[in-house]
Amino acid sequence: MKTMRMRLQFSMGIDETTGVEGTAITIEVEMDNNLNEVFASVDHLADTIKKIEEFIEHLRKLYENVLPSQSQVLAESRQTMEQIKSLALKVQADLKKKKQEINSVAQTPERHSAESRIKEAQHSTLARKFHDVMSEYNQDLVDTAQKRQALNEVEARHKEIMQLEANIRELHDMFLDIAILVEEQVKAFDYVT
């Protein structure tokens, strides 16, 4: 077994920054291999959630640069979204598995052990972090869809305005032709009279 020592220290006397009298506390926790595995698993899940956050940030940057080359941005964003989906499904499955383990221990006498409480606290923290990250991702998707819809509306209006401008040019040319014809008719009428 491995011993892990955690210290919370305050100097004896009054802390100048807070004005609070402190004490020294030492907590010794016996660490066995199960807890080491729990912490390794938690670290792995936390790293995966961090990767998801990095992919989300990458997507944000991609969507900010939509104008340079839309097809390239769309292809890269699809790939990033697939990576996010894949990682999210893995994290979700791992969290579900850990929750089942916690629930199975909850029905045994070991439910009050420090290891059980640590596992439950770690699971709760990771689940909350995962929920926050995925909520942020979903909000980004909604925002992007709204921006894309607004862009499509602007493009459609631009197309309509361009068509209207072409129609006005055509009408202008037609009036010029009529003006020239009228002028020629006036000259011909003056010549006849």
From TrEMBL:
Topology of this chain in the membrane: Single-pass type IV membrane protein
Places the protein is found: Membrane
GO molecular function annotation: SNAP receptor activity; SNARE binding
GO CC annotations, alphabetized: endomembrane system; plasma membrane; SNARE complex
Keywords, comma-separated and alphabetical: Membrane, Transmembrane, Transmembrane helix
Main localization category: membrane
GO BP terms: exocytosis; intracellular protein transport; vesicle docking; vesicle fusion
Ranges of residues in domain T-SNARE coiled-coil homology: 151-193
Family according to the record: Belongs to the syntaxin family.
Name recorded for this polypeptide: Syntaxin-1B
Species per Swiss-Prot/TrEMBL record: Geodia barretti (Barrett's horny sponge)
Lineage per the UniProt record: Eukaryota, Metazoa, Porifera, Demospongiae, Heteroscleromorpha
